[in-house]
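Lecture notes, structural biology module. Today: joint structure prediction for complexes of three components.
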Amino acid sequence: MRKIRVLYLLVMVPVVLAPLAAVAQPSGVPPTVKDKAQIEAAVAAQAAPTQQAKPAPAPPAAKKPAAKKAEVKRTEPIVPAYSGIREKMAVIVFYVWLWFSIAVLIYFLRLWIKEADRVYKAKYYEPEESPRKDNPMAPVLGD
Amino acid sequence: MKIDMKKLAAWFDDRLALTPIFKYMTKKEVPQHEHSFWYYTGSSILLFLFIQIVTGIMLALYYQPTLEGATDSIGRIMTELPLGWLIRSVHSWSSTFMIAFVMIHLLAIWFTKSYRKPREATWMTGMMLLVVSMVFGFTGYLLPWDDLSLSATKVGTNIPMAIPVVGKWVTQFLRGGGDVTGDTLTRFYLFHVCILPLVIFAILAVHILLVQKEGMSVPLKDEIAKKKVPALPFWPNFILREVVIWLVLLGVLLTISLAFAPSLELTADLMAPAPEGVKPEWYFLFLFQTLKIFPANMGPVTGEFVAVVLILIAVVAIFFLPFIDNKPEGKKGKLIQYLGVAGLIYAIVFSIWSLL
Amino acid sequence: MRIDNAYFTRRKFLNSILGGWLGAVAASFISPIVKFVWPPYKEPDEVKLVFADYSGMQPGEVKNFAWGSKPGLIKRAPDGSFIAWVGVCTHLDCNVAWLPDKKQFFCACHDGWYDENGTNVSGPPPKPLRRLESSVEGEDLFVRKPGVGAKT
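The predicted structure, tokenised, for the full assembly:
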């Protein structure tokens, strides 16, 4: 009996957790305007490393504060959005997993409710007559 | 060393008196009738309150309640921290759900007249909880500190000014001065994360205690007919049904939060003109529209004053509703029933009107 | 114990003294708390602006300035003098905007309108915009609360 339980756990835990883990990783942070700008900047910096290395002899004193300000001040709202087929698929997978899990749990809960109602209607655990009247948890934890 | 679980359980039982609590829960019965469904709204509110506490604490780990840092810290939560956008989304949507369920809970009790004797105090603490929940929403709305939330807060905190003498004090207390500034933000944050939670727990404790003391109410007609309503034990039959509802609500909340995550506008500028389309949260819309339809001046007083006084009278009347509706089965009871329906229609129509 | 012809007993008398005293002590504790929670609110009596920033304005043009933590609006009159207002709607405290093409002040919160003299013309505002006095003194442009004279 115990062996079967362990085996059951070994199978079920990955089955339930795997989709969650798979989804959580790609959809960690949906790219935003800010992110996109950062990525573009990073790509631009990689594309033209030589030009970036040698700054043009522009008036540096005038430009520095402006650049600093641009860093601090955001000019566009941050709007979360899913981009790319991978993230959209991840969300759909998550939805399916979520509602499937809820359906499974509700299925088992219904069985439990039916049993509890049946036990109550049969007056099996009348507090006065119950063989375990000192343990009111018995209806639930009873084997 | 082998721990004897039975002995350990007995030790805790001895110290904490758990057996009487469980005994009470199995003995507690929940009546089953055609309106039983509304019993579940109460525990749904508790579910959303719990989610608010968890996500709220998570957001507070990174949020900075300062003029300079507020918006940017939320931007950081949304873009840099893992799943931060989702935490914020769940917090925002869960607040909406919680207030919606508080209102459904209230209306269900209004229409089934469950506030009648001896449950007047339960109703009154419930009304306090509604007001506290709405203040929670109002203070939380400012925290992102963007243009819309700033203007909405300016309008909201200016409304008490319509009342002579006292109003000015209330406004200055809310704003921490004459204007909405960084002090207001700090104050609202303090209310949102410290004072209001203390208040809501205190009132909630009394509310739940009163519900336990009086037991669940049965429909009015069954009470008059002295009919014995069939019932289910609270534990485990009723609580298992509650878990089913919780699971569904949790699924709906996650689905919506994932699909419609709130965005973050630009940092508010105290000197900039108000943006167009300043709107409070949805649960204030009908009050907002009510204020809007009153003319600037009505005889010797401002229209705003008249509107605020009318709203205050309505709130006080609803607070003392169990005493006004003291003969629920009579003609007056019927009239109050219709007034509730009229109020609901009014709130829905005005909310939609304000969005047009 | 009550003395003959007395209005109240000795216990009542002592209790009222004790209660009154406790009340006075509580009030002396509470008043500083109240004072702390309600901060002193001071609007500036006057603000000093650099005249050079505003000297180039055309008649009828409107510019912003900071009136404490509120926005202020300053307009050049046809005779070259300045007219200033607190740029806050008299309805519910939203900041107003100057719309140059309509020559009106506009509050977006509840659709309030003021004409170019700051008079409320339509919508919910109950009063005209609050007027401030202004004067040019040397290199400076002073904006003052009405009734507050020059400080020099």
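Point to remember: Chain A has six helices and no strands.
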